[in-house]
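Q: My labmate handed me this sequence with no annotations at all. I'd like to see what the chain might look like in three dimensions before we decide whether it's worth expressing. Could you predict it?
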Amino acid sequence: MLIACLLPLALIGCPGDRDDRPKERKRPTVPVTIARSRTATVPVELAATAHIESPAAVAVRSRVTGTLEKVHFTEGQEVEAGALLFTIDPRPFAAVLARAEAELARDRAELENSRRELARYTTAAAKGFVSAEQADQAATRVATFSAAVKAGQAAVDAARLELGFAAIRSPLTGRTGEVRVDAGNLVRANDETPLVTIHQMAPVHAACTLPGRHLPLIRRHQAEAPLVARIIDPANGSTPLTGTLSFIDNTVDPATGAIRLIATFANRDRALWPGQMVDLRLLVTERPDCVVVPARAVQTGQQGPYVYVVKTDTTVAVRPVTPGLAFGEELVIDRGLAAGERVVTDGQLLLADGVSVKERTPAGAPARPAANAEKPAGNTP
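A: Here is what I predict for the chain of 381 residues:
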């Protein structure tokens, strides 16, 4: 009986019959956002920071000295070429013109009289009634008064020109700036301070610099067709402003290795302003059949860029990739990924090679209905 009682205890205490090894903990499933790589035609663009320039800017100055009588526009107004801007008191210039015209009339009268005298002296000298010397003097008086008439005509033209300068007109179509001199002040000819500055607003230029290594590519495609330049409208970020490349400088800056470019924009709605800094993109060409993924899918590790590829068993694998061009929020993958593969775009922090994942709905996207969800009651199909 004692042996029968001790035998079960011995069997229970035998270490060979128990498995004391720790069980491996199963990794939890990580919720992630997934996107599928796709094939797209990608624009090859060169990005640069450009500043807006006016193709023509004029500092308006008076060409005569006088009293500013009237300003015919308001500051900041759009004016047309030839529009009257300022009027300088014209009376002094009108008086000078009248005097010059009177002197011209006197000289013309003297010229006509000297010509008649010359005719009489020429006839008398031929008959021997007067000496040849007197005939020569008459001819000299004709030449003298002819020169006086020409000088008088020049004086009249100069006086009429100065009278015209009393009305200052716009040399171009553009927008006026601040008026520097008020009506009633004395303005001087060619003064250092301009009366007003006018900038042409349409079209405008966007000037930028790009590395000189891009010059062969730009010239090759510019020879085929004018290259398109785009600027994101500051007032409406979703609508880009479109222009064309109009100028390539003839010299690469030896100090910086950069080339200066100018793109022209119509700017009919005045969205661009001279002096403004903008982000410009120059469309050089397009690359078809590129594999693209959302840019946030590409991570950078010690071995370089990589993505997490979701396999058919819902586990992920680390895949080294070679990223290429970026456009918008997407990135071209030159090597390492095929079109149609699923990659993780959010939640990579908790992932490792072989971790199981489940797809979650991105923030702001409508939730997907479950496959086995019950249909609502009624006749809804």
